[in-house]
Amino acid sequence: MTEKVPGLDLEQYSGGRHLPDKFYDYFYPEEDFEVIDDARQARIWGSDNGGLTVYTEAEWLELFRQQDLEKLASGIFWDTLVKEVNRTNFKLPEKRPVDILDLACGRCKEGRLLNSFFGSEEPFEFSDQVNLFGIDTDSESIESAQYANGEEFDVETAKRVPSKNMVFIAGDATRLEDYPEIPEQVDVVVIRHQQFVGGPDYLPGQAEEIWSQIISNGIKRLRPGGIAIITCYFQIESEPVKKLLEGFSGKIVVDEKNEFARDRDDEQSILDDQYILIFEKE
Ligand SMILES: C[S@@+](CC[C@H](N)C(=O)[O-])C[C@H]1O[C@@H](n2cnc3c(N)ncnc32)[C@H](O)[C@@H]1O
């Protein structure tokens, strides 16, 4: 099925920090956009017809040229950063790049947004003043993260070119000491959709052990004044994380429902980043 996405004029928003409201009319919060290599098709989840839209390569490239559709993806996390990080006392380092550590990053859909938020202040404008280190046990996600977060887009291969400012590691975030490429200290830790409470993939007690270790590892790597941004699918999942954070020197400066997340009553909603915690290290 081929369905054209209504045109959006991104230019008019280029001076502001918020993505267009219209974005939300046409896309769901956690837009999922990827190129299917074999078929060389692009598929776009959740366009305004509420379903999966598949474009042929030619159609997709044309759309890409017209609108840079990737710029429309992941908008919700941008707005969340704008509101919540600006409520903290976090200060960008003056004489060196910002170091960000994204633990259990999956495909790290937020990678380019983090880069531009902490480096340039314009959504999707790439900054070389941000170093991002992402780690996840799922090697397929890590490969995808590498390509999805590159600065340049190569229309020949229909892939982004991996960025030298982003290092993605297929590895275990409970054992950060095994990866010397990850800096000892970072300015920002990001953990999206932590799994402390577990789920069907975990044995009883296992998730708590793994995730308390992952989160503790992140907090320990924070520089003084650094922040950890931790999001949850459900508010209830934030409770054990808050208890854990109490054991570290610093304070929770953001602890609230994310106003930009889609309402849970919306039957097509994806429960992304429903609840957000930000911890500021002393
Ligand atoms: C709910 S997903 C969230 C992924 C991503 N942060 C996001 O928000 O889309 C949880 C992720 O934790 C990863 N994970 C689980 N245990 C891990 C570990 N010990 N080290 C690194 N990643 C882990 C999984 O592979 C999965 O990608």
Question: Explain this structure to me?
Answer:
There is one protein chain. By secondary structure, this protein is of the alpha/beta class. The chain folds into 2 domains: 10-72, no CATH class; 75-281, Vaccinia Virus protein VP39 (Rossmann fold), CATH 3.40.50.150. The protein contains 7 helices and 12 strands. Strand 2 and strand 3 (52-55) form a beta hairpin. The longest helix is centred in the C-terminal third of the chain and has 16 residues, at 206-221. The model is unreliable at 1-53, 67-73 and 266-270 (pLDDT under 50). The structure holds S-adenosylmethionine. S-adenosylmethionine (SAM) is lined by residues 104-106, 135-138, 141, 172-174, 192-193, 195, 210. S-adenosylmethionine is lined by residues 104-106, 135-138, 141, 172-174, 192-193, 195, 210.
Oligomer: single chain
Radius of gyration over all CA atoms, rounded: 19 Å
Count of helical regions = 7
Structural class label? alpha/beta
Low-confidence stretches: 1-53, 67-73, 266-270
Total domain units: 2
Termini separation (Å)?
A: 53 Å
Compressed to H and E, one letter per element, the order equals HEEEHHEHEHEEEEHEHEE
Please bin the fraction of helical residues: 10-25%
How many strand units? 12
CATH fold name of the largest domain: Rossmann fold
What general form does the structure show?
Answer: globular
Q: What top-tier CATH class of the largest domain fits best?
A: Alpha Beta
In CATH, the homologous superfamily of the largest domain goes by the name: Vaccinia Virus protein VP39
Largest sheet: 7 strands, mixed
Give every kind of bound small molecule, once each: S-adenosylmethionine
Mean pLDDT: 75
User: Looking across the biggest beta sheet, what order are the strands in?
Assistant: 8-5-4-9-10-12-11
Second CATH tier, the architecture of the largest domain: 3-Layer(aba) Sandwich
What percent strand?
15-25%
